[in-house]
């Protein structure tokens, strides 16, 4: 089979790889569509020591079962799935917080991922797709579930209902865009997204019908927002988020661009700011997201860019060089 392989920092190449071997309890999938994630780009840049050269990246996918050694799935079923492979036995799994599993491994990190014509995965990780949900939209399940999980977690801490809040999203990449679309679906009408890329600002204004600003030239304002989502996670955006949130407000931290930075702990304390971190999603979130995508909660997703897998190396380079305006680029092996 053909697979897009991470060979060294700033390089992926299309290689011929052996077809996946069917293991007990697992299925083999024909990959129909696979999205490029920010964490894939992080690995591409050589910044993720867990993802080593020789690895097939990719963990956002829609696929069709071609072989099954799992009683849960039959050949021909259309699926998406949870790239986190969890143990099902630890306290977190038993609590339904499987995203925090102490023994988790991951597709596209500890085993070959979805930037290939085929991939294997445990049957327990998969979710059936509705007939009307096409592969490209279904491939957005994973990042959309990240946004859904973050918003649902945040709403537990907000003092007033979400539609009453003035909301700021920092970053208009895939998570920022999907969060903005879901916020609008949830009834938020005072929404601002800060994004440096002009094309993405235009796309956000068109599809999420929100206000946008370029944070290089315009700051969001201090103490101005009830709820702030940092979908970038840089030292600068963490500082901006804490400055922009109102006393008593909530900051949701999703992005992981920088691993450490100073934040305004004095304001956090004296203004009773709630600072939340979030990691991925649960299986329940993924199932809810498939249903939300199917009913159009994230809009028509016409802003998603599609390319064939054999152009994957160029796609990664274009993302690296900032030549892609879309917040999400999806590779299609059969295209």
Structure description:
The chain is an alpha/beta fold and 335 residues long. The protein has two domains: 2-140 and 304-332, Alpha-Beta Complex (Quinone Oxidoreductase, Chain A, domain 1); 144-277, NAD(P)-binding Rossmann-like Domain (Rossmann fold, 3-Layer(aba) Sandwich). The chain has helices at residues 38-44, 91-94, 135-138, 141-155, 174-185, 198-207, 235-244, 265-270, 283-294, 312-320, and strands spanning 2-8, 11-16, 26-35, 55-56, 60-68, 78-81, 84-85, 105-106, 118-122, 126-128, 167-170, 191-194, 211-213, 225-230, 245-253, 274-277, 305-308, 329-332. Strands 3, 5, 6, 9, 10, 17 and 18 form a seven-stranded mixed sheet that branches. Strands 13-12-11-14-15-16 form a six-stranded parallel sheet, sandwiched between helices. A three-stranded antiparallel sheet has the order 2-1-4, covered by helices on one side.
Write the layout of secondary structure elements.
Elements: E1 2-8, E2 11-16, E3 26-35, H1 38-44, E4 55-56, E5 60-68, E6 78-81, E7 84-85, H2 91-94, E8 105-106, E9 118-122, E10 126-128, H3 135-138, H4 141-155, E11 167-170, H5 174-185, E12 191-194, H6 198-207, E13 211-213, E14 225-230, H7 235-244, E15 245-253, H8 265-270, E16 274-277, H9 283-294, E17 305-308, H10 312-320, E18 329-332
Parallel strand pairs: 11-12, 11-14, 12-13, 14-15, 15-16, 17-18
Antiparallel strand pairs: 1-2, 1-4, 3-5, 3-9, 3-18, 5-6, 6-10, 7-8
Helix pairs in contact: 4-5, 4-9
């Amino acid at each position: 089979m053909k697979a897009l392989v991470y060979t060294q920092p700033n390089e992926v190449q299309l290689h011929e790889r052996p077809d996946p071997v069917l293991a007990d309890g697992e299925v083999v999938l024909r990959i129909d569509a696979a999205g490029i994630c920010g964490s894939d780009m992080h690995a591409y840049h050589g910044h993720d020591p867990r993802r080593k050269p020789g690895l097939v990246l990719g963990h956002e996918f829609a696929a069709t079962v071609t072989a099954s050694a799992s009683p849960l799935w039959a050949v021909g079923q259309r699926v998406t799935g949870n790239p986190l492979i969890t143990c099902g036995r630890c306290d977190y799994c038993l609590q339904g917080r499987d995203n925090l599993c102490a023994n988790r491994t991951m597709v596209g990190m500890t085993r070959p991922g979805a930037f290939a014509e085929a991939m294997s995965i445990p049957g327990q990780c998969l979710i059936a797709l509705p007939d009307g949900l096409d592969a490209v939209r279904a491939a957005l399940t994973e990042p959309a579930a990240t946004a859904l999980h973050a918003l649902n977690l945040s709403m537990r801490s907000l003092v007033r209902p979400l539609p009453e809040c003035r909301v700021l999203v920092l970053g208009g990449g895939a998570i920022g865009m999907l969060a903005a679309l879901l916020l609008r679906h949830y009834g938020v009408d005072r929404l601002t997204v800060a994004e440096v890329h002009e094309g993405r600002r235009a796309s956000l204004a068109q599809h999420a019908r929100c206000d946008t600003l370029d944070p290089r030239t315009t700051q969001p304002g201090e103490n101005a927002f009830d709820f702030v989502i940092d979908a970038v996670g840089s030292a600068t955006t963490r500082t901006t988020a804490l400055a922009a949130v109102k006393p008593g407000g909530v900051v949701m931290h999703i992005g992981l661009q920088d691993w450490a930075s100073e934040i305004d702990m004095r304001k956090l304390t004296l203004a009773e700011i709630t600072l939340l971190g979030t990691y991925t999603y649960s299986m329940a979130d993924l199932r809810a997201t498939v249903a939300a995508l199917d009913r159009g909660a994230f809009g028509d997703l016409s802003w998603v860019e599609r390319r064939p897998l054999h152009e994957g190396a160029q796609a990664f380079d274009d993302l690296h060089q900032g030549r892609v305006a879309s917040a999400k680029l999806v590779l299609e092996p059969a295209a």
